[in-house]
């Protein structure tokens, strides 16, 4: 998922790539699930948001809630998130949704291929070497026995928690390590009698036998049960955290029946997966020309659905930087900012996922492993700020265009059509206020001065495009003569509340800093 996203983002910037996938086709098991507003904004920039949303509506109840129960047929214990999209309209043109990875991957694969990327499936990486000019990857195709040697300028390793590439580079994880040997059971059973009138998207189960959560399809006849705790942790916490000891079909059926609360329920097990719940971040995200992303770079429990989203955001952050370096419009040192920016975000997000794991599933861990204060989901999804080599979290309602923050969503009218300000962020963009005419010629001249011409769009918001609600300047922290410079990934690079004496010089300096 992360690798295909990287290929699609690179292709959007005109960069050819080869994606190597060990599998010949997407896994049929319903992995991943919860996609955040920011991720949907990225899919929107690729033009695939409608396809993603249509796939979600086929599979899952829209706008679902997250609840806790003692069993599916029993009592509701808590409303963890009463409505999936409560309050998102002010912050984003996109809405959160649920979608399984097997439904998402074909959409990403087709988008990447149609834009010029090569996707090679059934290709296993056996060796990686790099030098001053590029990276060489030896690939074996197990079905045919063919061995290929591929060479590229850079390599993005999004090869998961057991990353071959990360291990070959000697990069280790640091953090809390594993705190549960967990189990996911993929099954079919008719649960509609208990869910027909409920828009429950994620259902936490807490009872004396097990603790975990259900994810079920729209018809409530198939899905999975993830179990982190089996037994009574007050008697033996270590033993209870080992839920994956017995994976016999008889036991798996028993676990599903116990979580539903119905003995004798007809259950068909389609498969299972053992996995370790961890909260770790790699000690570095870059080694020369090789970058790691996704689970190869950070591991977190599934609580909050942050893992896949964070990996896709890694790819989005890296793609525009690679594009400008490969086009000769930025120095290679720009790529060093990938680790500086993404590692602190990963560390923040991993800790927030762990906090949610403890509070929702394993409260007895809290005395032994103090947790970070629980932050709003909005702060984690949209409110982090890139500041040097640290990250600050903030309420995205109140960032108001601070440099380092995600640029705000504002509805505008351009050529008679309603567009989000985010839709105008294809490359670097300069947003000036309605009286900021001096910025436009400065932007045009600076764009021409770059090799091949650096894409730099410029707008006087309030004139063209129109700001029908009159909120743009306040949301971006500028006056009618001020301006905001936004990077291709939608983060604010610089802001001028009012036009300075030398707009050309100010903009050129800010752009040079943004490009390292």
Contiguous helical run count:
14
Number of strands: 26
* Assembly state (oligomeric): single chain
CATH architecture classification name of the largest domain: 3-Layer(bba) Sandwich
**What is the residue-mean pLDDT, rounded to a whole number?**
93
What's the CATH C level of the largest domain?
Answer: Alpha Beta
- How many domain units? 3
What's this entry about, in short?
With 516 residues, the chain is an alpha+beta fold. Helices cover 29% and strands 28% of the residues.
Tell me about this structure.
Helices cover 29% and strands 28% of the residues. The strands form eight sheets. It has an eight-stranded mixed sheet with strand order 4-3-12-13-14-11-15-18. It contains 14 helices and 26 strands. The protein has three domains: 2-61 and 93-174 and 286-363, FAD/NAD(P)-binding domain; 176-278, D-Amino Acid Oxidase, Chain A, domain 2 (2-Layer Sandwich); 411-514, 3-Layer(aba) Sandwich (Glutaredoxin), CATH 3.40.30.120. It is globular and about 75 Å long. It is an alpha+beta fold and 516 residues long.
